[in-house]
Design brief:
Distance between the termini: 37 Å
Helix content: 25-40%
Shape: elongated
Radius of gyration: 21 Å
Strand content: 25-35%
Structural class: alpha+beta
Number of strands: 6
C-alpha cells in the first residue's frame, strides 16, 4: 500500500468495511477515542508512531478492502496486467504488474503516466472508442481488443481483455489483462471480428 496522506479518510473507510466503532479502533491503535475522532475529522494529524500503527493495521491482508487486495495482486503478478483510470480524453496507469514492468515494450512506463496514443497504428482510435464505449460508466461488462505496437522497429501483436472495476469510493477503473500473440494468431483473431474492439454487455 502506498503512502496515505488522508489518514482520516483511510480510518473511516476501514471502520465502514469492518463495522467497528471508534473506541475499538482506538484500542487497536493504542490511542484514545477522542484522538481517533480528531484524526477522522481532519482536525489532527497522527504522530509518527500512530501513523506507523495505522499503516500496519491497514496493511494486514484481512483488513484490506477488495480493491486494495486487487491492487496488491496486480503489482506482484507475473502476467502483463495494468489498472487504468479515466483522465480526461485519456487514461492513466494506476497499477502495473511485475510482468508488465519487465516487458521490453513497457519498461519506461510508470504509474501516473497516461497511455501513449501513438503507441500503436490506430492507438488513438482504440483509446477513444474504449472511453466512449461506456465501460467507465458500468454500461459495458468487458472489452476484448486486439492491436499492434511497434518498439525498436519490432511489431508486437496483442490481445487484451479490459474489465471495469469499481472502488469502494465509487470510482471506475479498468483491469487490463494482455496476452502477446504471434502474427498468425493476431490475423486469425482479427479475421473473425468486425472491429478490433469487441464489446460485451449483460443485455
Amino acid at each position: 500500500m502506498g503512502t496515505i496522506l488522508d489518514w482520516g479518510k483511510a480510518l473511516r473507510a476501514h471502520r465502514a468495511r469492518t463495522g467497528i466503532n471508534q473506541q475499538s479502533l482506538a484500542d487497536q491503535l493504542g490511542i484514545s477515542q477522542p484522538q481517533v475522532s480528531r484524526i477522522e475529522a481532519g482536525t489532527a494529524e497522527p504522530r509518527d508512531d500512530v501513523t506507523s500503527a495505522i499503516r500496519a493495521l491497514l496493511e494486514r491482508p484481512n483488513n484490506r478492502s477488495l480493491f486494495d487486495g486487487l491492487m496488491a495482486a496486480i503489482q506482484f503478478s507475473p502476467h502483463v496486467i495494468c489498472l487504468v483510470q479515466l483522465a480526461g480524453d485519456n487514461v492513466r496507469y494506476v497499477a502495473l504488474s511485475r510482468g508488465f514492468r519487465e516487458h521490453p515494450q513497457f519498461r519506461r512506463i510508470e504509474v501516473g503516466q497516461t497511455v501513449r496514443k501513438d503507441a500503436s497504428r490506430n492507438g488513438e482510435v482504440l483509446l477513444l472508442d474504449t472511453i466512449g464505449s461506456g465501460i467507465f460508466d458500468g454500461e459495458i461488462t468487458a472489452i476484448d481488443a486486439v492491436w499492434i505496437t511497434e518498439t525498436d522497429q519490432h511489431h508486437n501483436h496483442w490481445q487484451g481483455i479490459m474489465t471495469p472495476i469499481r472502488s469502494a469510493e465509487g470510482g471506475w477503473y479498468l483491469h487490463c489483462a494482455m496476452k502477446a500473440l504471434d502474427a498468425d494468431a493476431y490475423a486469425d483473431l482479427l479475421a473473425n471480428r468486425e472491429t478490433p474492439l469487441v464489446l460485451h454487455t449483460l443485455h
